[in-house]
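Page 37, continued from 36.
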């Protein structure tokens, strides 16, 4: 198999070959590095090149295998890590110039778990300042571009991760999500992800000087962005391995018990007064039909109010951000990000004082409503965004821009507030005037049942196919 063929493989396809010994770890990593060297200069998705140490590690894995060591489940798979997570010896800059020399003293659990499984980190990917935009640009490393074209934002905050994996740089891309930062880049780039539920993936940064706020702890999760839905079944079991540094991690198996009878899916296209674009509606209908043909029972029925839960949750998060983070943004952020935060506080007026505590407490009310609803409907198919993905820097264009980028994304951050898992998968390649553009839908699953969300993503992907080959033809 030549180098050009290797980087095109999904993580599942590549791991089959590396575990069998048909492709060496060194060859797998070298192929991805070659691809990175070819396309990253035009994308700026990977902002720290770790090729040298990656090849050294790959050779060590090959030597250990030759000596009789059993290959790990992710043997030799090239992966990328987002720059807001600790990787020993590297800066956890979070896109902030003032943090460019914050060298991690150890690995975060996600990095340790990936490497224990045999993965090889080839680079670190870009994020916006403080990882708090749905677009990816910062003064330290500059803008990341969407491989589909510069008319589409790459999403954020894991924009470097989404652009990298879809362009063929690495088989898996690490990212994280407090309000949509895995799903926005997946939707922007036509990739697949599952936002894990609360407690599923252990998280902690050894470099951090203080604990995060309670809502940041309960809404933020670590995950992966992939080219193929099946890759999540391959890799997530390694990512969720326990780590004692996260005392609230739930050590549950990846696969839950099968449900009796066909799985019921609640289907909604309610966008709460925002215009539903015809192409998004077609994507939803394609996903609905794919699930129906795969044996799911899909019913168009309204779940509990995601708008109320989402807006309440994000206003509460903004209250915590205003109290605990605004000082850092004002001190170390660029003029651009400071202005964006001011508009955030207008779009989502922060709760404060007693009202903030009341709204944090109300989280249990919303979660209970959804838990009861999902006794009958273990999955919910929703829009992710009501419109095709927005242009770069749309969130810098005042109240109207932030409203389009985040204001209408209630199905996204509602799931962070509820702590529910949510898959995001492309269901249509829309023939827009600007060029073909992926349209993703969201699959919400019962608590602890990320595996069910991924199964549904696989069913949709089987209908529409992977989007990466279309993208690579466009990039050629």
């Amino acid at each position: 198999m030549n180098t050009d063929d290797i980087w095109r493989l999904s993580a599942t396809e590549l791991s089959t070959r590396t575990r069998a010994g048909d492709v060496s770890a060194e060859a797998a990593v070298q192929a991805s590095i070659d691809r990175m060297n070819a396309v990253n200069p035009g994308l700026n998705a990977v902002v720290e090149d770790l090729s040298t140490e990656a090849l050294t590690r790959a050779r060590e894995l090959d030597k250990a295998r030759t000596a009789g060591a059993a290959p790990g489940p992710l043997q030799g798979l090239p992966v990328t890590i987002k720059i807001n997570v600790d990787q020993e010896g590297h800066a956890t800059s979070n896109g902030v110039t003032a943090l460019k020399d914050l060298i991690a003293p150890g690995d975060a659990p996600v990095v340790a778990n990936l490497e224990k499984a045999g993965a090889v980190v080839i680079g670190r990917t870009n994020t916006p300042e403080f990882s708090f935009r749905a677009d990816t640009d910062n003064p330290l490393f500059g803008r990341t571009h969407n491989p589909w074209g510069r008319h589409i934002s790459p999403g954020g905050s894991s924009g470097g991760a989404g652009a990298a994996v879809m362009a063929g740089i690495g088989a898996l891309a690490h990212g994280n999500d407090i309000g949509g930062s895995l799903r926005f880049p997946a939707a922007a780039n036509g990739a697949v992800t599952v936002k894990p539920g609360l407690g599923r993936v252990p998280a902690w940064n050894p470099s951090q000087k203080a604990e995060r706020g309670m809502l940041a702890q309960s809404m933020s999760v670590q995950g992966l962005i992939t080219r193929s839905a099946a890759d999540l079944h391959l890799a997530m079991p390694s990512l969720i391995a326990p780590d004692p540094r996260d005392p609230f991690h739930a050590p549950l198996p990846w696969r839950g018990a099968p449900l009796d009878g066909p799985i019921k899916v609640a289907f909604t296209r309610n966008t709460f007064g925002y215009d539903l674009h015809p192409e998004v509606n077609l994507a939803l209908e394609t996903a609905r039909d794919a699930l129906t043909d795969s044996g799911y029972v899909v019913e168009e029925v309204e779940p509990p109010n995601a708008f109320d839960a989402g807006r309440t949750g994000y206003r509460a998060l903004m209250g915590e951000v205003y109290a605990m983070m605004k000082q850092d943004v004002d001190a170390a952020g660029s003029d651009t990000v400071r202005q964006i935060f001011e508009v955030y506080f207008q779009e989502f007026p922060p709760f404060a004082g007693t009202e903030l505590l009341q709204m944090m407490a109300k989280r249990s009310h919303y979660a209970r409503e959804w838990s009861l609803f999902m006794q009958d409907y273990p999955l919910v198919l929703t829009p992710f965004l009501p419109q095709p993905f927005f242009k770069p820097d749309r969130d810098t264009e005042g109240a109207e821009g932030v409203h389009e980028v985040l204001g209408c994304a209630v199905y996204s951050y509602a799931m962070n507030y509820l702590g529910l898992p949510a898959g995001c998968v492309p269901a249509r390649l829309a023939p827009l005037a600007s060029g073909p553009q992926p349209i993703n839908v969201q699959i919400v699953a019962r608590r602890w049942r990320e595996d069910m969300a991924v199964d549904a993503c696989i069913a949709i992907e089987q209908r529409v196919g992977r989007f990466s080959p279309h993208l690579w033809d466009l990039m050629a």
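The chain has a mean pLDDT of 98. Flag for discussion at group meeting. Residues 3-475 form a domain with the Amidase signature (AS) enzymes fold (CATH 3.90.1300.10).
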